[in-house]
Amino acid sequence: MSEDYSLRSLGEVMRLDIQRTPMKPATTYRLAGVRNTGQGLVAKGEFDGADTEYTAMNVLRVDQVVMRKLTAWEGPITVVPAEFDGFVVSNEFPTFTLGPEVMPDWMRHVCRSPRLWAEMKNRVSGTVQRRKRLNPEQLLQIQFPIPPREVQERVVEILDAVDDQIAALDTEADALEKTLDGWISTEFSTADRNAPLGDIAEVQLGKMLSKERAAGPEQAPYVRNADVQWQGLNLTDLKTMTFTEKDRGRFALRAGDILSCEGGDPGRSVILSEDLDGIYYQKAVHRVRATGVDPRFLYVAIKHSYASGAIADLCTVTTIKHLTAEKYRTLRVPLLDEEQQVRAVEVHDALFAQVAAIRAEANRLSGARAGLLAGLLNRTI
User: CA-to-CA distance for 355 and 353, rounded, in angstroms?
Assistant: First the structure.
């Protein structure tokens, strides 16, 4: 590493700088939160100063660095963009002002660096994992290669161009998905009959997870709620628990089965294109096995019911929405004639294949971006 690309502590190029504002009744404040892995800020709504227990809160100012002390090992750090100037956060979110040697846009990319998150994780303190904190002083001790401003400008130019391309791909995929949803809605509006889901499919929740089963005998991998995504089933990091021989018959997964989320995002579904021998599913997931219609058509119909809000209308609400098996079986599924069903599947599959290809390209570019970021920051590139 050359002299002009020196390793320096963050405390040399930025300083703790917190502006507090009192919470006044009859005054409206805009609340912000910090997303993990340097992904920026999120607006959390407005509130009246009389409706909070805080007597004062921290004010965000444009181009400052802000982090969350709690669970800092998840990388909740970013640079404040102009649209969040003046928002407030609790004292769990210290703010820092950058010195003249560091460009805010360059620091924004640094905040998305796994290297920085690892350094933050190494410095957190506390005994309970979810309550571990990173103090401002600990953040400022982290050492990072700080290039000259002209190099920072070039790094920002390159990474912004990559981000723009990823954003363009995401926008294209979103627009195509919106077109697909619109077409499905129009097609199903012609249906002149329907049937309860329970009359045309078997609906069954998976096996309940417990501490004993997670460590017991006869371990086998299972699909969780988070693994079920519209774009496909994630099988890269499956957990395991006990599945007896009887369980394995009951909770088997085969081609044509539809898996739907029971909670979190109720109704989010995926259809299996092949048998998943030796893989099962837990209670947070419904297995929908078509008995009276083509499973591919049923998947499109479930997608329509999700997009139209029909599934949401069935959910029970406590703190988290839940789609019980009993309620799911009552879902009224619009039934098209046989020719329309074939057409619905063909159009859906053709458009969805395009969406999947665009999403895959965006994911590949995101992966390349991570390597590019690391190389630009440590000067291997």
Answer: 5
In a domain, 351, yes or no: no
Per-residue pLDDT of the chain (381 residues; tens, 9 = 90+): 344 577 899 999 999 999 999 999 999 999 999 999 999 999 999 999 999 999 999 999 999 999 999 988 899 999 999 999 999 999 999 999 999 999 999 999 999 999 999 999 999 876 555 568 899 999 999 999 899 999 999 999 999 999 999 999 999 999 999 999 899 999 999 898 999 999 999 999 999 988 888 888 999 999 999 999 998 999 988 999 999 999 999 999 999 999 999 988 999 999 999 999 999 999 999 999 999 899 999 999 999 999 999 999 999 776 678 999 999 999 999 999 999 999 999 999 999 999 999 999 999 999 899 889 888 887 787
The whole-angstrom separation of Cα 183 and Cα 79 is 40
pTM of the model: 0.75
In our burial notation (b when 16+ CB lie closer than 10 A, e otherwise), range 116-139 reads bbebbeebbeeeeeeebbbebebb
In a domain, residue 166? The reply is: no
Same domain, 204 and 135: no
- CB contact at 8 A, 146 and 101: yes
Q: Two tokens at 105?
A: 């846009």
Burial class (CB in 10 A: 0-12, 13-18, 19+), 298: buried
Q: Which of 369, 358, 359 is nearest to 160 (CA)?
A: 369
**326 and 267 in one domain?**
yes
State how far the Cα of 243 lies from the Cα of 207, in Å rounded to an integer: 9
Residue type, 271: I
Which of 18, 14, 15 lies closest to 88, judged by CA?
18
What the block records as the tokens of 103 is 């460009």
Is 224 part of a structural domain of the chain? yes
Whichever domain contains 311, its CATH number is 3.90.220.20
Closest among 49, 78, 37 to 366, alpha carbons compared: 37
- 165 in a structural domain: no
Q: Give the domain range for residue 111.
A: 3-146
